[in-house]
Amino acid sequence: MGVVLGTLSMQTKQVNFRTDKVDDELEMTMVCHRPEGLEQLEAQTNFTKQELQVLYRGFKNECPSGVVNEETFKHIYAQFFPHGDASTYAHYLFNAFDTRNNGSIKFEDFVMGLSTLLRGTVREKLEWTFHLYDINRDGFINKEEMTEIVRAIYDMMGKYTYPALKGDVPKQHVDAFFEKMDKNKDGVVTLEEFVLACQEDENMMRSMQLFENVM
């Protein structure tokens, strides 16, 4: 769980400070989206107006149109993990940010998710992470879903991070997670089981600290 949150922290921290040149031709050929007023976003998030302005400049640098589709998101995310394959994890992460389920992420979607991850309460952070793992959005996490995410994380980190990784390691981790989380042993983890297990496990709770004072 800490790896998931850590990689998210790394990605969001670096996106904020990227200064690549804007591709003017691309910007001209795409429909631009302007975000809601910063005052409204300031009221809806835990960011100040000045922080939102910095975030918006970074977002526009990466996405001149003001909207990110999944392929662009994957391309940006892959740059931070050159020794692994980040495409599958980026797919799940994109879906977690795409709260409107329309195949695109606007600045509002991005900053609302970022606000939760960086400045939200422990409960809010855990709820966001739960929804990342709940791939089919049925309100439960099963072993197959958790295995998909964990395997995607290992693929993304690559062989340089895990030189001795064996094929059954993701399954072993999932089995260990479920042993702690699935309190009633019904084969699925509910939001409340997930939150309770994380709050009871110091290692899981320690991962929450990765989002303190990142901005």
From TrEMBL:
Residues of the EF-hand domain: 85-120, 121-156, 169-204
Localization in the cell: Cell membrane
Molecular function per GO: calcium ion binding; potassium channel activity; potassium channel regulator activity; transmembrane transporter binding
Listed InterPro entries: EF-hand-dom_pair (IPR011992), EF_Hand_1_Ca_BS (IPR018247), EF_hand_dom (IPR002048), Recoverin (IPR028846)
One Pfam family matching this protein: EF-hand_7
Keyword flag Glycoprotein: no
Keywords of this entry: Calcium, Cell membrane, Ion channel, Ion transport, Membrane, Metal-binding, Potassium, Potassium channel, Potassium transport, Repeat, Transport, Voltage-gated channel
An example Gene Ontology CC term for this record: voltage-gated potassium channel complex
GO biological process: regulation of potassium ion transmembrane transport
Family designation: Belongs to the recoverin family.
PANTHER family: CALCIUM BINDING PROTEINS, KV CHANNEL INTERACTING PROTEIN 1 B ISOFORM X1
Protein name (record): Kv channel interacting protein 1 b
